[in-house]
Amino acid sequence: MNSFRVIVTALCCVVVVFGGLPFSSNAQLDPYFYGKTCPKLHSIAFKVLRKVAKTDPRMPASIIRLHFHDCFVQGCDASVLLNNTATIVSEQDAFPNINSLRGLDVINQIKTKVEKACPNRVSCADILTLASGISSVLTGGPGWEVPLGRRDSLTANQSLANQNLPGPNFSLDRLKSAFAAQGLNTVDLVALSGAHTFGRARCLFILDRLYNFNNTGKPDPTLDTTYLQQLRNQCPQNGTGNNRVNFDPTTPDTLDKNFYNNLQGKKGLLQSDQELFSTPGADTISIVNSFANSQNVFFQNFINSMIKMGNIDVLTGKKGEIRKQCNFINKKSSELDLGIVASAESMEGDMVSSI
After folding, report:
1. How many alpha carbons lie under 13 Å from residue 239 in its C-beta half-sphere?
2. What intrachain disulfides are recorded (predicted)?
3. Residue list, annotated binding site for Ca(2+)
4. DSSP string, 232-273
5. Sign of the C-alpha dihedral, residues 14, 314, 167, 137?
6. How far apart are alpha carbons 222 and 3 in whole angstroms?
7. How many domains does the structure of the chain reveal?
8. Of 1, 37, 89, 131, whose CB is crowded by the most CB atoms within 10 A?
9. Average pLDDT in the 72-76 region?
């Protein structure tokens, strides 16, 4: 744990180029919230995630995506982790999530170990947020002291998930609107999109770009022609659409600035990604160029935006609860054996939403 704290401390001591680094927009959140009540929290989460990442290098990207999909729906409250019950309609079955979310079982693994070490202390919302920060470190990205003190929601909102989560074919205007609705600005949009520097997407979500963009019968003109042919080889027109393609063809499992270099070279995998650079006159172009020119600048702003996103509409104080099991509210989870409940997820799922 000491070595991990050194890494995090060193990486978080930076000056953000596009704005000050807010450790928390909510005064009740504190990186040392569990310093006395659960001092082993960070080391427990780190050990679980490090072990999983060794056998599944895609998992860190999936954890960060899971965090994003949680925060964009009624705030960072672990609502995305809730399974269907008689009273809860799970967000996991929303269109951007169905058969695509990964990492729920990993969060459950961490929760199980944390409950043994410090029962009824640490929320699932905090575990997911912390796991996202650790996932960045494990893949070569920056680390930061994650503000903690969130509590878990008592419900989910599938309709809001369908409404709020941006899609892979969104225009730049629609992306900006989706982020603005969460209190996130254009710099946040570009910085958080950088999470597409690792992970994979199914061919299903790019087939139109490759063969029939906007019903023209032609490919998306913003795609590099060599890259287009590579993608067509991986994603045949009459295929099932289930083949998986790396977001970054050069360093697919590393969090780095290559995403932005790819956009400059017309090699953004999703339409919504390439929109950041190829929309004529867009204010996002200069931000992409800045991040492409300096990995340090990207990392600084990624930290800033991840903390900002992690503070969206958090529950603190006496709001919500501290779930005993992440997939069920306490009234239900008290009837279950924590050690044998498995999350309902598709381990072969891949990224669907824009981020």
Report:
1. 20
2. 38-118, 71-76, 124-326, 203-235
3. 70, 73, 75, 77, 79, 91, 197, 248, 251, 256
4. HHHS-TTS-S--EEESSSSSTTS-STHHHHHHHTT--SSHHH
5. positive
6. 44
7. 2
8. 131
9. 98
3-class DSSP state of 284: helix
CA distance 269 to 311: 29
Q: Which residues are annotated as a binding site for heme b?
A: 196
pTM of the full structure: 0.88
Identify which of 230, 238, 234 has the alpha carbon closest to the alpha carbon of residue 212: 238
Whether 2 shows a pLDDT value over 90: the answer reads no
Residues 191, 79 share a domain: no
Specify whether 141 is located in the same domain as 188: no
Query: Does any domain span residue 347?
Result: no
pLDDT digits (tens, 9 = 90+) for 298-350: 999 999 999 999 999 999 999 999 999 999 999 865 455 444 344 444 444 44
* SS3 of residue 287 by DSSP: helix
Radius of gyration for the alpha carbons in the chain, expressed in angstroms and rounded: 20
Does 260 reside within a domain? yes
Range(s) of the domain holding residue 115: 2-9+25-165+309-333
Indicate the residue among 302, 321, 347 that finishes a domain: 302
Annotated binding site for substrate: 166
Same-domain pairing of 212 and 289: yes
How far apart are alpha carbons 4 and 9 in whole angstroms? 9
Phi-psi region of 330 (alpha: psi -120 to 50; beta: other; left: phi over 0): alpha
Residue type, 121: R
Rounded to a whole number of angstroms, the distance between the first and last alpha carbons of the chain is: 30
The amino acid at residue 160 is: L
Token duo for residue 350 = 């891949």
Residues 240 and 143 in one domain: no
Q: What is the three-class DSSP state of 145? A: coil
d(CA 334, CA 60): 30
Query: Tens digits of per-residue pLDDT, 151-182?
Result: 999 999 999 999 999 999 999 999 999 999 99
The verdict on 186 and 266 lying in the same domain is: yes
The answer, yes or no, to whether residue 276 has pLDDT greater than 90, is: yes
Token couple for 46: 């780190």
Active-site positions read: 69
209 and 274 belong to one structural domain: yes
